[in-house]
Amino acid sequence: MMTIGDFLTILAIVCMVVVCTYLVVLIKNLNDSVKIIKKLLKDNKDNIDATLKDMPVISKNLVDATSTAKNELETVGNAINSISETVEMTAAAANSIKSGFFGKLKKTVDFVSMAGKVLINDKKRESIK
After folding, report:
1. Predicted pLDDT of residue 33
2. Residue partners of 118: CB distance under 8 A and separation at least 6
C-alpha cells in the first residue's frame, strides 16, 4: 500500500518534471527570440551604425530648432503685448477725441441757445417799449 510519504514523493517528482518541461520550452522560445533579434541586428547593422553616428547632429539640430522656436514665441508674445498696448492707447485717444468733440459741440449748442434766448428777450423788450 502507498503511504502519504510515497504519494508526496511521486507528486514532487511529477511537479519537477512539469517544471523542467516548462523550463526547456521557455529556453527554446528565448533561443528562437535571440536568433531573430541577432538576425535583425545583423541585417540592419549599417543603418544602426549610421543612425548612431548621426545622433549628435540630430540632437544638436533638435536643440537649435527648440531654441529658435522659443525665441520666435517670445517675439510673438512681445508683438501681441505691443498690439494690446497700441489698441488700449488708440481706444483712450478715440475716447478723448470723442469726449472733447462732443463737449465742444455741446458748449457751442449751449452758446447758440443762450444767444438765441438773449436775442428773443431783446426783441420782446423792444416790442414792449
Report:
1. 96
2. none
Scored b (16 or more CB within 10 A) or e, 80-103 reads: eeeeeeeeeeeeeeeeeeeeeeee
Residue-wise burial string across 23-36, b where 16 or more C-beta atoms lie within 10 A, e elsewhere: eeeeeeeeeeeeee
User: 48, 41 in Cβ contact below 8 A?
Assistant: yes
Rounded to an integer, what distance in angstroms lies between the CA atom of residue 78 and that of residue 87?
14
pTM for the structure as a whole: 0.41
Residue owning grid cell 523542467: 20
Helix intervals (H) in the chain? 4-43, 45-128
Of 13, 71, 47, the C-alpha closest to 79 is 71
Instruction: Find the farthest-apart pair of alpha carbons in the chain and give their distance in angstroms, rounded.
Output: 157
